[in-house]
Amino acid sequence: MPGSNVVIVESPAKAKTINKYLGRDYVVRASMGHVRDLPTKKIGVDLEHGFQPTYEPLASRKKVLAELKKYARTAGEVYLATDLDREGEAIAWHLAESLGARKNQRVYRVIFNEITKSAIQAAFEHPREIDMNKVNAQQARRILDRIVGYQVSPLLWRKVATGLSAGRVQSVAVRLIVEREREIEAFPPEEYWKIGSIFTSDISGAPAAAEQWAKFLEQTDPMGNPPTLQAQQEFLGGHNAFRAELAQWQGQKFNAADADTAVAIVKALGLAVREVRRQEDPKGKGPARNLVTVVGQLGGQGPVPKFTVRDISQRESRSRPPGPFTTAALQQAASVQLRFGASRTMRIAQQLYEGVDVPGEGSVGLITYMRTDSLNLSNEAVGQIRGMIGQQFGQAYLPDSPNRFASGERAQEAHEAIRPSDVRRTPRDLMRALSDEQYKLYDLIWKRTVACQMTPAVWKVTEADIVCGTPVRAVSSRSTGVSPVSPMGVPPMSSPLNSDEEKETAHGQDARETHGQDAHATGHATAVFKAMGRQLAFDGFLRVTGLPRTGDQLLPELAKDQPVAPLAISPTQHFTQPPPRYTEAGLVKALEADNIGRPSTYATIITTIQDRQYVEMIERSFRPTDLGLAVTDKLVKHFPKEFDVRFTAHMEDQLDQIEEAHADWVAVLQEFYGPFSENLKKAGEEMTHAKAETTPSEYKCETCGKPMVYRFSKNGRYLACTGYPDCKSTHPVDREGKKVARVEVDVACPLCGKKMILRRSRFGEFLSCSGYPECTGSLKLDRAGNVKPPSPPPLAVDVTCPKCQSKLYLRRSKRGPWLGCSKYPKCRGRLAWSALPEEQQKDLTRRLEEHEQAHPMPELKKADGTLIVGAMNAATGQVSDKPAGAREAGVNCPKCGKPMVIRAGKRGDFLACSGYPKCRNALNLDSLPDLQKQQDESATPKP
After folding, report:
1. DSSP letters of 557-583?
2. Residue 624: predicted pLDDT
3. How many CB atoms are located within 10 Å of the residue 557 CB?
4. How far is the C-alpha of 943 from the C-alpha of 453, rounded, in Å?
5. DSSP 36-51
6. First to last CA, the chain
7. Catalytic: 582?
8. Distance CA 728, CA 723 (A)
């Protein structure tokens, strides 16, 4: 509209939501993010003249920018309503520089923490100028990252492998993962023992309860799993029984470092040891290689000592509610509770912030800005939350004054924590308006926000000391180096007792010597067992967040000097554990703790280090690849300061100073670039090529008998003969450096008919023709290890990628045709099939059918020519007539009644309806027992 005021935001969703709050005098348009940036094919920074950048319009935004200029030329005033962080400020500045405003035309900057009517109106009533301190802070970060990326990456191309990249922050994140992995490898485990027991206050029923407990533990569900902890607690509660652990022995804190000591003590406590089973764990280190299991029976060879309650006490424990979500806290909680990756979490949060169509209201912004490190909540929001708590839950759940939470030192208190824009919109109210993932994340944010202003949860904690009131034989300790012990289970492998001492132990005899003392010396060796139970007295904030899954037990009514009877006494072997590997949540927490990057960058960091193949996710934990190890070692050696955790945190503080204290951004860059340029020059001269470095191995060449060494390639380590070039033998290895055996698979090569071999690349396992390199036939495997039938080559069509403008490939999937960029994996752009006009869809479908007919794919066959029907597992050779990775679950879908199957997914097995895609019901595997129980109850005829 000529003469109207123009409002520019980043995304169409945000534009749609804001548009309804502004009158007819405003036209809202989206810039689709940044409209210009540093050039892609050169560094674009004048390193010798004050680090002056050269910006160019983005090729993908030229059309958008032209449209925005057209509106700006005729607009009365221009409002830049991009996000309120540094990135948003920089986008606003780039827009102001690119629009070419008329003389005397005012360009305003407006910011808001939430997209609501009141927030939008307040922002437009108080516009401001662009904050150049924020712009300079973002510009300095961008130039800093460009310097590192464009100068270190070419060095890695020359010294490691082509196509690699380095990043000022991403490389430090990889370093954290590498150093944690090496901590784990170097960790020396130490052996220690615990002696647990189960007591009951029902003395007369103890013998029968002990027998029932042993039988109960032998039960398994249809999946082969033993009883859950909750089921065990229910069983014990029904028999007035409870768990306890040995805390003191002979007047001292219990501490057993070997099996002999633990076995001697449990014998003294009445356990007749029948067998000591030993098993070797080839993957264990030090004492952890020797696993010991002790099998025994209470009272098998004499009376069991009497146990009484010596002391019992009760106290009150309070759990305070956690604070509202910051960006990092939201990513961690979503990872742990929802199993959402950081990038997925931020994508969904962006949708909730920008606006979702709510029936009867239109597009509504449901949460406040999702990139924040502040724990602050506005007074208006706190008042609204407290009002809802008092009205919905009662005054008992409302503290006398609002709960306040201290933010970190670097937090910007002007910002708010992530919260619902209107807490009165409950997740249940929005269920129909939100997708499944949007609902889960909104529910998480809503509950955390409400809970943070509620009263603490109150627990009633009961502690009891159980003592052995009968004189028992005194036992001392000595180290024997025997292996692990499981009280009620039997390990798969066992070895007969082969020493006189072990045979005597198995027959209930006493251990011989302990540190030179006679184990037969008698005395009043009192055993003190500690039992603790916890019961929720007042739920407080847990009324909203739900009870934690802690497996707390509830002690029966006990009194001082009351006798109790043991149902089981169990010595178990344990080992000290190394620090855990980083999960996504753990890595975000570490980055935040070390001040590496900003909350808005965590998701990008995690995505980048995986895309670059520097780390891989295995069982939801990060492990460095051989490539990541090689790159990290070289960067740390030759750039000890630039890729140091503390220095990276220091640079983040310097960038903050540009914004907050108006520091000179050029001086900050100069501080970094001076030492960096010297190290860069030195590294170019001294860094050796990774492929020239070798590490000795234990293997000999099968061809010539010479020693083999580990060498490096971009795909990882491998074994190579030292006789090269006379002998060119090589051999693949696994993650531990062990030779990978040549595994032939009973699948015929689709090109030449020879047997295929199971191989591994940096993208995972695949099948390759045994006739390689003469034949290059290969087949892909799915996540379950099943052979994927060959598919026709993609069809290149005259539709351009929305990201890089390259041609798109047309392929067919189970859900129909789909369009993906031909430059994958460099570009991951995709275009929705539904976005094409119907006529174009019909034309492309016809062309795809003709293409498939012109490129028929061979059928999968075994080596003898037998046709393979169904999914074939490459490792086992088993063929199923079911879809790949699916097996029967034994229950029906609660939605449509069709059988449920167990499928393999990225994050493990899960339950899915066999009626997919018509029925998309999917459940966590933990819900299988409940479904089985419900199905059994419904099948049982009612009287």
Report:
1. P--TT-EEEEEEEEEEEEE--PPPPP-
2. 93
3. 9
4. 49
5. EES-SSS--EETTTTT
6. 75
7. no
8. 7
- What pLDDT score does 515 carry? 32
89 and 82 in contact (C-beta within 8 Å)? yes
- Count other Cβ atoms within 10 Å, centred on residue 742: 11
Catalytic residue, candidates 369, 582, 718, 809:
369
Query: Which phi and psi (to 5°) does residue 239 adopt?
Result: -120, 20
Q: How many H-runs (helices) and E-runs (strands) does the chain carry?
A: 22, 41
Longest Cα separation, the chain? 103
CB atoms within 10 A of CB 284: 15
What per-residue string of b and e applies to 786-815 under the rule 16 or more CB within 10 Å gives b? Answer: bbeebeeebbebebbbbebebbbbbebeee
Q: What is the DSSP string of 826-841?
A: T---EE-GGGS-HHHH
Question: Residue 462 in 3-state DSSP?
Answer: strand
Q: Where are the beta strands (DSSP E) in 281-324?
A: 290-298, 307-319
The string of DSSP letters for 475-503 reads ------------SS---S------SHHHH
Residues of the chain with pLDDT under 50: 1, 477-523, 883-885, 942-943
State how far the alpha carbon of 395 is from the alpha carbons of 377, 391, 398, 401, in Å.
Answer: 21, 8, 5, 12
CB 898 within 8 A of CB 887: no
Model pLDDT, residue 271: 86
Residue 256 has φ and ψ, to the nearest 5°, of -115, 125
What pLDDT, on the 0 to 100 scale, is given for residue 473?
57
Q: Identify whether the C-beta of residue 465 lies closer than 8 Å to the C-beta of residue 529.
A: yes
Helix/strand/coil for 20? coil
Beta strand residue intervals within 350-439, DSSP E: 356-358, 362-364
Nearest to residue 47, comparing CAs of 189, 166, 148? 148
According to the model, what pLDDT value does residue 938 have?
67
CB atoms within 10 A of CB 30: 18
- Asked whether the bond before 917 is cis by omega within 30 degrees of 0, the reply is yes
Cα separations (Å) of 853 from 847, 849, 861? 10, 6, 21
What pLDDT is attached to residue 721?
92
User: 234: part of which helix (H) or strand (E)?
Assistant: helix 229-238
How many whole angstroms separate alpha carbon 527 and alpha carbon 466? 8
- The angle at the Cα of 83, spanning 78 to 87, to the nearest 5 degrees, equals 105
- Contact in structure between 526 and 468 (CB atoms under 8 Å): yes
The residue written with tokens 């890089």 in the block is 804
Asked whether the bond before 303 is cis by omega within 30 degrees of 0, the reply is no
Distance of CA 19 to the CA centre of its chain: 38
pLDDT at 662: 86
Q: Evaluate if pTM is beyond 0.90.
A: no
Q: Is 292 exposed, middle or buried (0-12, 13-18, 19+ CB in 10 A)?
A: buried
Question: DSSP readout, 62-90?
Answer: HHHHHHHHHHHHH-S-EEE---SSHHHHH
Q: Cα–Cα distances in Å, from 849 out to 794, 799, 836, 856?
A: 12, 18, 18, 11
DSSP secondary structure string for all residues of 586-626 = HHHHHHHHTT-S-GGGHHHHHHHHHHTTSEEEETTEEEE-H
* Closest among 426, 433, 432, 366 to 393, alpha carbons compared: 426
The two structure tokens encoding residue 453: 């202003």
Query: Measured in whole angstroms, how far is the alpha carbon of residue 343 from the centre of its chain?
Result: 11
